[in-house]
Amino acid sequence: MERSWDDPKVPNPHPFKYLINAPKICANQPVFLMIYVHTATGNYKRRMVIRQTWANPRYFPDTNIRLVFVCGRTDDKNPSAQAALAFEAEQYGDIVQEDFHDSYKNLTYKGVAALKWISLHCRHARFILKSDDDIFVNMFTLLRHLKSLDQHGIENRGLLMCLVWTHMKVMREGKWAISKAEWPEDHYPTYCSGSAFTMSTDVAIALHNVSYQVPFFWVDDFYITGLLPLKLGTVKHKQFMSTYVLNGKQLEEKFTGPQWYTYIFSHVHNLNSIQSVWNKLVKLANGEIRAEIKYALPGELAALAAEADRKEAESKKKKA
Questions:
Q1: Mean pLDDT, contiguous 10-residue spans, the chain (320 residues)
Q2: Helical segments of the chain, H only
Q3: Which of 99, 44, 94 is nearest to 76 (CA)?
Q4: 80 and 41 in contact (C-beta within 8 Å)?
Q5: Taking the model in full, what pTM does it have?
Q6: In whole angstroms, how far apart are CA 256 and each of 45, 54, 313?
Q7: DSSP code string of 268-303
Q8: Statement: 18-319 belongs to CATH 3.90.550
Q9: Burial class (CB in 10 A: 0-12, 13-18, 19+), 74
């Protein structure tokens, strides 16, 4: 693999260094599904919930899954947040942090960081799942679907499976406003909802390699799943719309109802409801293990997180 990320001559270099890394997560073992989650440094509880529920390997003993959380650096004025993250990384070994400022308009850097990490440390995985940390995933149905690709002899290379957006209008006003200078067309080419998508690992590696040749665009879902595949010309967007629950308030209704096995992804409207939903889903899927989510962060991490949150609140108060 060519080392392009720190070459200033390429159109879109990615020169950021690792502040925290987890290079051995996939080492010396076959991996069926590598999960990477976009997170923010202060989202401790969200990460704890994901570790203990849908991305917990103990619920899938016959399938080798791995999990990593990807983020940028914290506010330099809040060293407590960095200390808390470093302690969390030491405890769980699943944090990857690069030296870019973690902000809304830098999410594309986060996406490329994840693709780079996979290319370096987990390129032998069969499939890749990208998720935001406010997404709930029915892993039972997702894994069943991915395994069925092999069983039915379906080509599992070049796949990008997602909620596909086609001919989406470019917003010129509001939070997501895009100027004519940034994107002159009135509509976007085909791309995926960035909340969650699944791809074959060859796609992740190809997207990483081509990212250095495609100029930076701050709308990360469009850049990663739209512009990069467009440049490659070999990626097939597979529509998964029916598996997404777009209204997070319907999470429990859909994932614990009689058609639970047809849904895979949903936004989380209420973090405190996840334990109940997950336990019901586990029972529906196999009637086995129940989750006992500990929302209270363990020991020293709780103290570090509280101090980081306090300083963040003080910083926001001063700005207001």
A1: 56 93 94 98 95 96 97 84 94 97 95 98 97 96 89 77 92 87 91 95 97 94 96 91 87 91 91 90 74 50 62 68
A2: 44-52, 79-92, 107-121, 139-151, 201-211, 220-222, 228-232, 251-255, 274-285, 299-319
A3: 99
A4: no
A5: 0.87
A6: 23, 14, 37
A7: -S-GGGHHHHHHHHHHHHTS--------SPPHHHHH
A8: yes
A9: buried
